[in-house]
Design goal:
With 438 residues, this protein is an alpha/beta fold. Helix content is 37%, strand content 23%. It has two domains: 130 residues, Urease, subunit C, domain 1, CATH 2.30.40.10; 293 residues, Metal-dependent hydrolases (TIM Barrel). It has 15 helices and 17 strands. It binds guanine (GUN) and zinc ion.
Length: 438
């Protein structure tokens, strides 16, 4: 198989945060109308105008033509549960009932290797179909759910973060581990998978209510012992959850303090939701260099609340964008952007298309400390690319035919685009998905 080719067509990538104004800050955006990405053994060897690059290309190199399309860095999902794929769209509950009624029974099935392997493959097929080339993934408390996921991601050459859920109380027996057994399993999985190929390990205490102090403590020690490990959990998503945490941890001054007391809040920690937080708690997260995952479709679906991006901005707290499937209703980053815009509108803080696509790519890569590898189209980056089709549907074709600026085109894609808009997905230099062309 040839590992060396050129993708030619319009391309967009961010060099910096474009800022929140209507127009991006000078120098923050790279847009080439007739661009070229020279792919070489899974990496981007050069990015330039096609005509400028052409003289330095080896004779006979394959050039794939994407005129009329738009190339971007592959999308990143900072928080998603692969094991909840089959309970998306479960009716009518808020968080705690939804967990007990739908989530825990579904997760109990991941004790079976065959089930885990099958769902891992379907999930990764779906990620490729929606243009997501990297995700930070919750598995279940069963080590086999993690092995199955990593094996499938490794075989495909994907950059993924994942981890075994730690939960040693307040959940069905089929899902609980023990404080130390859970840590031992995590250590073994870290040894087998962290840093293998493009994979990384996230320590995954589900959320404060399902771990004992002993388990949280042991998790904190492990995180401190290996500063390149990640941590993912949930924080301040729902009022019932917050009240429960206050009952379970009366010594803590607030929900975040539970995690702080156990040394779980660091620069590689992702806290999903973080909706109901004081400005002071946000400032503490910012101080630690942590990020909060904004999961707009999930927050709307479970009725959890409206995420205040500007409050984060005020204290310099990084947020990432996430689907949070199975509570989220859309795996596709375009769906996440559409909902993020709508949530922003309800708070009087609309999200520009520049901000949206920045966060879905370079912003998320930075939040996850992966920007040395992914998140932008630049020389030396890994070749993870999504090719969008602005004419994917008759309606989208009609609407985008009327756009006069790149800004308008991006906004139309963000509001009207969906999985059909993803024409191709490349990861690790290989085409991993091509939309069926009628
Ligand atoms: N809090 C604890 N577990 C979960 C989960 O699986 N999904 C969501 N949305 N919130 C959680
Ligand atoms: Zn979640």
């Amino acid at each position: 198989m040839t590992e060396n080719r050129v993708l030619r067509g319009p391309l967009l990538s961010f060099r910096e945060d474009p800022g929140g104004e209507d127009q991006p800050e000078a120098g923050s955006v790279l847009y080439l109308e007739d661009g070229a990405l020279w792919l070489d053994h899974g990496h981007i060897r050069a990015v330039d105008d096609y005509t400028r690059l052409a003289p330095s290309l080896p004779p006979g190199i394959e050039v794939v033509d994407y005129s009329g399309k738009l190339m971007m860095p592959g999308f990143i999902d900072s928080h998603v549960h692969y094991v909840q794929l089959d309970i998306m769209a479960a009716y009518g509950r808020q968080l705690l009932d939804w967990l007990n009624e739908y989530t825990f029974p579904a997760e109990s099935r991941f004790v079976e290797r065959e089930h885990a392997e099958q769902v891992a493959e379907v999930f990764l097929d779906e990620l490729m179909r929606v243009g997501t080339t990297t995700a930070q993934v919750f598995c279940t408390s069963h080590p086999v759910s993690v092995e199955s996921f990593f094996i499938a991601a490794h075989r495909r050459g994907l950059r993924m973060l994942a981890g075994k859920v730690l939960m040693d109380r307040n959940a069905p027996e089929a899902l609980t581990d023990t404080a130390l057994g859970g840590i031992r399993d995590s250590e073994r999985l870290i040894g087998d998978w962290h840093g293998k190929g493009r994979l990384g390990y996230s320590l995954t205490p589900r959320f404060a209510p399902t771990s004992t102090r002993q388990q949280l403590d042991a998790t904190g020690s492990l995180l401190r012992s290996a500063p390149d490990l990640y941590l993912q959990t949930h924080l301040s998503e729902n009022h019932g959850e917050i009240d429960w945490v206050a009952e379970l941890f009366p010594e803590a001054r607030d929900y975040l303090d539970v995690y702080e007391r156990h040394d779980l809040v660091g620069p590689r920690s992702t806290f999903a939701h973080g909706i109901h937080l004081t400005l002071e708690a946000r400032a503490r997260l910012a101080e630690a260099g942590a990020n909060v995952a904004f999961c707009p479709t999930s927050n709307l679906f479970l009725g959890s609340g409206l995420f205040d991006r500007l409050a984060c901005h005020k204290v310099n707290l990084a947020f990432s964008l996430a689907s949070d499937v199975g509570a989220g209703t859309d795996l596709c980053g375009l769906g996440t952007l559409k909902a993020a815009y709508q949530v922003g509108q309800l708070l009087g803080q609309p999200l520009t298309a520049w901000q949206g696509f920045y966060h879905l790519t370079l912003g998320n890569a930075r939040a996850l400390h992966l920007d040395a590898h992914i998140g932008s189209l630049r020389e030396g980056a890994e070749a993870d690319i999504v090719v969008l089709d602005p004419r994917a549907t008759p309606l989208l074709a009609r609407r985008t035919a009327h756009t006069k600026t790149l800004d308008e085109l991006l906004f139309a894609l963000m509001m009207l685009g969906d999985d059909r808009t993803i024409f191709e997905t490349w990861a690790g230099g290989k085409c991993q998905h091509r939309r069926d062309v009628a």
